[in-house]
Amino acid sequence: MKISSERQRVSNALLYFYNYLSRGYSYTKYMIIDGRKIAEEIIHELMSRPKPSRFFGAVLVGDDPASLNFLKQKEKVAKELGIEFRLYRLSSGITTDELRREIARLAGAKTCGGFIVQLPLPEKINMHYALNAIPKEKDVDMLSESALGGFYSGRHKIVPPSVGTVEEIVRQENLNLRELSAVLVGAGFLIGKPVGFWLQNRVAELTVFDEHAKHLREKLKNADLVVSGAGVPNLFSADDLKDGAVVIDFGFNNIGGKICGDFNVSGVKGSSFAKATAGRQESRVKFTPTPGGTGPILVAKLFENFYALNSSKQI
Predict the structure, then answer these.
(1) Of 146, 151, 153, the residue nearest 162 (C-alpha)
(2) By C-alpha distance, which of 103, 170, 180, 171 is closest to 134?
(3) How far does the chain reach from its first CA to its final CA, in angstroms?
(4) Is the separation of the CB atoms in 279 and 239 below 8 Å?
């Protein structure tokens, strides 16, 4: 009686499993690219180098909570590396000319080895004019025209952190860019333009789309690599991608207090992860999650640039 009962339970379980499969469900093979782990490796490698003696300076205009949080992450890494981190908080009422003078004064200090201006700036500020006050040799974010000019002409010893992040992920994932078709979503100042420039002579094919492009999702189907910096929450999902695609997501969006990227992990066909697994064919999509994806790598690359710019300048 006991044996018969046990057999029945096993039989019921197998029947349930068979019915589950017959409905066309399977586990979707989402493979996460762990940005935190990659960042830790970069920071660990920096610890083996001679430590720059100059300080890392940052300006925050106003009191935007998200910006302050980003700066705290950078300060945390600086402490791990034993680098002095100085944060200068300025009033949101400051003018463009006043901000430019402050940046030039603070970044111009002989003991300053690297300087950043936390974005975004208040709308009334001429962002590019202010950023151009950062000396090229201290612009670790590479946002000034002189630093970017050096990058675009191939005459700079560092690359923008966004480019460094893509390059690092490509290396970690052993991607042969020459054989890949890449799609870049968004051509903005921070992500799209520098990453697009870096990719254009390295991949087999590069297509750049604005986030408002018609039938964007259909056009992603043939992409081996998707880099997105559109800043549009849940812009596309695994349903829009080919098997084996790699997604590098720079999107950072706050929806009702929940942080998400441009890539919708839960899928477009339902709100739950389970519904996204519909279909008999396994989907093997690798992606950087948000948070915990490109963000930590960006910060690590910022400090990698800091070390590179100070490699021969000890005081």
Answers:
(1) 151
(2) 103
(3) 85
(4) no
Nearest C-alpha neighbor of 100 from the set 137, 126, 139 = 126
What backbone phi and psi angles, to 5 degrees, belong to 100? -60, -40
Contacts for 134 with CB less than 8 Å, ≥ 6 apart? 103, 107, 115, 116, 117, 143, 144, 147
CB 101: neighbour CB atoms within 10 A? 14
Report pLDDT digits (tens) over 171-219.
999 999 999 999 999 999 999 999 999 999 999 999 999 988 988 988 8
Both structure tokens of 61? 């205009």
Closest CA to 203 of 187, 223, 220: 223
What are 263's two structure tokens? 């890539």
pLDDT in tens, 56-80: 999 999 999 999 999 999 999 999 9
The domains found in the chain, sorted by start residue, are 48-139 (3.40.50.10860), 162-297 (3.40.50.720)
- pLDDT (tens digit per residue) in 208-258: 999 889 889 888 999 999 999 999 999 999 999 999 999 999 999 999 989
